[in-house]
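User: hey, got a sec? need Heavy metal translocating P-type ATPase folded
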Amino acid sequence: AIMPASLSAISNGARHGILFKGGAHLENLSNIKAIAFDKTGTLTKGKPVVTDILIRDDMNERDVLSAVASIENQSNHPLAQAIVGHATREFNVQLFQPDSLEDVSGWGVKALVDGSEWKIGKADFVDKRLAEQFMNGAYGRIASEGKTTVFVAKENEIVALIALKDVVRNETIEALKLLEKEGVQTIMLTGDNEKTARAIAEEAGVASFIAECLPETKVDELKKLKDQFGTVGMVGDGINDAPALATANVGIAMGEGTDVALETADVVLMKNDLTRIAEAIKLSKKMKRIVQ
Ligand code: ADP
Ligand code: MG
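Assistant: Yep! Here you go:
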C-alpha cells in the first residue's frame, strides 16, 4: 500500500520507540536548532542515592531522620523517595503522619510536626545564609562532586544536610553527540544550584546549562531560546517541566515521566532512550526531502 510520507514516518518512529502525537510535530523536528533538557530524570536516571548525612551535633540523628522521612514520604519528588528509602533501610526509622504539609514545587516541602515547623529543600528555601554557615565549606566540595544538597530546618534553624548523587543515563553522552552532529545546540535547565549543575553538565557533555531554574523560569528560558534559535525542543519528565514542554515548538517527554508531562508533550520517548531524538530528527529531514 502507498502511505503518505508522514504516516509512514510516524509508524516507523513508533517501531523505533518514539511516539508522535501528529504529523506536524515530526515536521517541526526537521527545523529544530536547539533542544533544552531537564536534568533530573531526563539527562540523569532520576534515581538519586543518599551519599552524605550531616546532623547538627546536639540533635539525635534517628529523630531528625524519622521526621525528615515522614515528611518526604508525602512528596513524590525523586529526592524525597530516595531519602525515605535510605532512612527506612539504613536507620530503620518509623514513619508517621505530619500534622500538616505543603509541597512547594521546585523548592522543597514544609510541614508541621508536634507544633514545630520543618522545611526541607534547597538552601534558598530553608535560609540561604544559615545553610551556608551550616555547611562551613563542605557545600563547595559536595556540590562540585555533582551532588544535590537538601537542607533540613526545624523552627528556622538548620539541623541537617543530606547530599544525594544521581548518575547520567548510559545513553546521554552518545545522544548529545548525535544531536551535535545534526547541528542542534543542547542546553540543560535545572532547579539545582550552579556548582552541582556544572558538574552534571560536564559529565553529560551538554553544551551549556542554566541553573537555579524554577518551573516558571524554565518557561522564560524556553521563550528566550525560541527568540534566539527559532524552532526549539524541550525534553523533560516531571510535573514541573510541563509548562516548558508546552512552550517549546516540540515538547518531548520521557516515557517513564509523570502523567502530566506525557499528556503535555508532542512526542514521547517510549523507552526513555535519548538517542532516539537525533534519529527522529534524521527521519524528519528525510521525510521532508521525500515530500518536496
Ligand atoms: P530538577 O530541575 O533538577 O529536576 P527540581 O526543580 O525538581 O530539580 O527541584 C529543584 C531543587 O529543589 C532540588 O534540587 C532540591 O534541592 C529542591 N527540592 C524540590 N523538591 C524537594 C523535596 N521534596 N525534597 C527535597 N528537596 C526538594
Ligand atoms: Mg526532572
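Quick note: Residues 163 and 284 are 42 Å apart (CA to CA). Let me know if you need anything else on Heavy metal translocating P-type ATPase.
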